[in-house]
Specification:
alpha/beta; Spore Coat Polysaccharide Biosynthesis Protein SpsA, Chain A; Trfase_1_rSAM/seldom-assoc; Nucleotide-diphossugar_trans; Glycosyltransferase
């Protein structure tokens, strides 16, 4: 059993299998289907590798469409637990992961793999914030979404009928957290790689 710094937290990484034509579709015009898939795989490996190296807490890799892809198997060997995402939209899948993680952990940190500048320090800060009494913490993304959601408890309002993929996800999440009456805070904003214009910034990142 690894000697985690925060053994009562769980990091849930939402991950799609790097299948050409099914990932990073907005980058296909610039990179082609194979190139977009390779970039997705590189971001997946970089994100999970950084979190494994930090040894902060147990890591669950929530896989779509299933856990069979060789990239997932390799990350399992390195120390993640593989889970299969449930059917439904992103909100349904994130909500399911959050509920399941909180059955055995005191707090859950949910991230994706689209943010190349997300390092373990942000996850550590999120865990510490939750440990110090906050109910939730959000990592704002520059495109209007978020790259991290940390929770001590969960609520369906955070995941249902959300305009996923749009520019209002962060604003709507803030509004719903306020309506819940929870104590919550935010991390520093970061950028995702989703659109062709993001590729130039990616050149400065060592994947």
């Amino acid at each position: 059993m690894p000697n985690y710094r925060f053994p009562h937290a769980t990091l849930a990484v939402m991950a799609k299998a790097p299948i050409p034509g099914q990932v990073k579709t907005r980058l296909i015009p610039a990179l082609g289907a194979e190139g977009a898939s390779r970039l997705h795989a590189a971001l997946l490996r970089r994100t999970v590798g950084a979190m494994l190296h930090a040894n902060l807490c147990p890591i669950q890799l929530w896989c779509s469409p299933d856990t069979d892809h060789p990239e997932f198997i390799e990350l399992q060997v390195l120390g993640t637990v593989l889970k299969t995402q449930c059917p439904g939209d992103l909100g349904a899948r994130m909500g399911h992961a959050a509920r399941e993680c909180l059955e055995t952990a005191r707090k859950v940190i949910i991230i994706g793999t689209d943010c190349p500048v997300l390092h373990a320090g942000f996850v550590e800060q999120a865990i510490i914030t939750l440990t110090n009494g906050h109910d939730a913490i959000v990592g704002p993304a520059e495109d209007g979404g978020y790259y991290l959601l940390g929770l001590n408890r969960t609520a369906d309002e955070l995941f249902q009928s959300m305009p996923w993929g749009g520019e209002r996800v962060l604003l709507e999440t803030r509004r719903r957290l306020d309506n819940l009456g929870w104590r919550w805070s935010e991390l520093a904003p970061l950028w995702d790689v989703d659109r062709p214009e993001d590729l130039q910034r990616l050149e400065s990142v060592n994947l």
